[in-house]
Amino acid sequence: MKHDIGLTVNGVATSATVDSRTLLVHLLREQLGLTGTHVGCDSSNCGACTVLLDGEAVKSCTVLAAAADGASLVTVEGLGSEGDLSPVQEGFRQCHGLQCGYCTPGMLIAATSLLLDNPDPAEEEIRSGLEGNLCRCTGYQMIVESVRWAAEHGGAGAVAAAERDGARA
Amino acid sequence: MIPSQFDYLRAGSVEQALGLLTEHGDEAKLLAGGHSLLPLMKLRLAQPAVLVDIRRLPELTALTESGGVLRIGAGVRYRDLEHSDLVRRTAPLLATAAATIGDPQVRARGTVGGSLAHADPAADLPAVMLALDATVVVRGPGGTREIAIKDFFVDLWQTALEPDEIVTEVRVPSTEGRPHAYVKFRQRSQDWAIVGVGVVGGADPRVALVNMAMTPVRATGVEVALADGASAAEAAAQAAEGTSPVSDLNADADYRRHLSRALEAAR
Lengths: 169, 267
Hints:
The structure holds 2 protein chains of 2 kinds.
Chain A lengths: L1 E8 L2 E8 L4 H8 L18 E4 L2 E4 L12 E3 L1 H4 L7 H8 L9 H14 L5 H7 L10 H13 L5 H11 L1
Parallel strand pairs in A: 1-5
Antiparallel strand pairs in A: 1-2, 3-4, 3-5
Chain B lengths: L6 E4 L3 H11 L3 E4 L5 H6 L7 E4 L9 E4 L2 E5 L4 H5 L2 H6 L1 H7 L5 H4 L4 H7 L5 H8 L3 E6 L2 E6 H4 E3 L2 E2 L6 E8 L6 E6 L9 E6 L5 E5 L6 E2 L1 H8 L4 H5 L16 H14 L1
Parallel strand pairs in B: 1-3, 2-3
Antiparallel strand pairs in B: 4-5, 5-10, 6-7, 6-10, 8-9, 11-12, 12-13, 13-14
Helix pairs in contact in B: 5-8
């Protein structure tokens, strides 16, 4: 069964035709060409596929694209842009919060959602807030420092804050 | 992994969802957060021909309190419980336990009704609802009925819910001001509990165990001991009484019995 869906992706009104069984991550990567969102475990454990859905972090490997009809999504491509990074992206740059980079898109989105929930998290709160994201390089210490940097330099960022506010409205 | 072919249908109301369940019978499954069902479908452990999406039905998302009873719509998410001042006040055990389920992304999708209907004995909410003495409200073609939580869980992944019924609400008597605790043992932060313990203290204490049988179970040995005036430590020694934990790759049954006593003592 095919579904014509409409959703907002990184601020842009987007329409697509998807199968019932199309997963949100595959819509993003294969139909919309947004390959910044990664597929890691494909079983809702690793968090590499994390995107903001109506301002909240979700694992897009375990959401049906058809069920996201009408939603507003932000992927890593939408957090900021070159020369205008979000505070979380800049924090990962300043504190070397990545090694191989595979988990990074999901980490950035999950950290952004965490900072929307809790703008001033302690180290332990960052660790528990990112428990849904695995780093295969085990570079967690620098990731925690990156999120702490972001908390002290602007927090979740304007794009994400607007998404959360928009979902509440 | 992509699930087998199926038809996705979004219900516009509970009434319409019931109609779709009747129309498609055994071929249909309800979809809410999907964090139990979709992984099973990816692995071909479930292959429903039709999914009926009830996630966004406003009828199922109410979260209110009246007359000392917290009424939780089946579509209320773990995240909603975790961040609700009302839940923290009237059912603090529920808010505490909800904040430990899976991880933040999972908690943004998973729902109260979905967790109870899925009835995994390793899940947190079924045991917590048992400790809270909740009532499950379900609707079917013949109308609405209420099921006491102690009668709701029948066996592994099996409930008293009929195939053509939908969980619409869970009613939780207020435990405002009563002491509570939720403790679980797991090897990694997002893992399921190997064993968990949920407790509502005070007069008439209630203790429920996660993953100590095919269903969540009350630790009646602990409850009786506490009612007889035993200390918490003495009562905790009775935690495994009457349970039938499984042995699996994570832990054998004896270790689970030990954990139930240790966690009960530690809470």
